[in-house]
Design brief:
single chain; mainly alpha; extended
């Protein structure tokens, strides 16, 4: 059990069946109770102390450090910031 749905459309169940009819029957048995979670829609609020976390545990392995300081959208395939920025204009 996941215990938390983080966004609309996140999968909450998996059904494995021998036939499509069995899968449909099983899907009808899935029941989910949702409770609202705190919502953050502003980037400043998202990084504020005490802001609700999307994931309780870090998604990166321990000891992983990124050297990227520019947004990915502004870098080209080779990581060249100036060229990527020029191409994005």
């Amino acid at each position: 059990m996941i215990g938390r749905v983080r966004y609309v459309g996140e999968r909450v169940a998996v059904i494995i069946a021998a036939s499509e009819a069995q899968a449909r029957d099983a899907a009808e048995l899935v029941a989910v109770d949702y409770e609202p979670l705190p919502v953050v829609v502003d980037a400043a609020d998202a990084v504020a102390p005490g802001a609700p976390l999307v994931h309780e545990a870090p998604l990166r392995p321990a000891g992983f450090h990124s050297t990227r300081s520019a947004p990915l959208a502004q870098t080209d395939a080779a990581g060249q910031l100036a060229r990527g920025t020029a191409l994005s204009d």
